[in-house]
Amino acid sequence: MIKRIQQLLVLTLIAATLTGCGSGRTAETRMIKQVTDGVEAQSNEIRLRNILIVKNENSEGILVGTLVNWSDTSDAITGITIGGMAATQSAPRYELLKNKPIIFAGESANADAFTPLTQIAGERVPIIFTFEKASPVTLDALIVENLEWYRDLPRYQPTVVVAP
After folding, report:
1. Euclidean distance between the first and final Cα of the chain, in Å?
2. For the segment 102-135, what is each residue's pLDDT rounded down to a tens digit?
3. How many whole angstroms separate alpha carbon 9 and alpha carbon 94?
4. Which of 33, 42, 78, 140 has its CA 20 to 30 A from that of 15?
5. Burial, 30: exposed, middle or buried (Cβ in 10 Å; 0-12, 13-18, 19+)?
6. Which whole-number Å values give the CA distances from 48 to 10, 70, 112, 128, in the listed order?
7. Could you read off the pLDDT of 54-90 as tens digits, one per residue?
8. Of the candidates 85, 32, 45, 33, which has an alpha carbon nearest to the alpha carbon of residue 63?
């Protein structure tokens, strides 16, 4: 019986070693920090996801990323600074309602922010998001070239309503 228990323990140890499983806080799957080029952050209940800058052929830095408010209380993005310069935005502020994402750039974009950019792809640039209620967030975002999936990055085109 003791020999059988020893065999079972050895097999369990071998299985854990071969699969790379760890336990608790040192498990390999717990150590994954960033799975995209973009960075992530949080301020109160506002989640910032996949934030990065795409540098286009006109040396503009186009903000890419998504912000989602998980709180029942609405908030608003009141300013965005990229590399120390205020970004040009498609709206003076973006309302952050519960579970209604603000998406910068891409096919489902509902917001746009960009600024002239002197840094090159591969460098990092600070981005500061300021909010009406939540604390400001500073991110160190990667600059990528507009190659591959960023090549024809559609930007948000707000609808302009002309008064009669």
Report:
1. 91
2. 999 888 899 999 999 999 999 999 999 999 999 9
3. 58
4. 33
5. exposed
6. 45, 11, 15, 11
7. 998 889 999 999 999 999 999 999 999 999 999 999 8
8. 85
Mark whether 2 and 65 lie in a shared domain. no
State whether 22 and 45 are in the same domain. no
Q: The domain that contains 46 carries what CATH number?
A: 2.60.40.1890
Encoded amino acid at 161, one letter: V
138-153 pLDDT tens trace: 999 999 988 766 666 6
Domain shared by 26 and 72, yes or no: no
Per 3-state DSSP, the chain is made up of helix, strand and coil in percentages (nearest 5) of 15, 40, 45
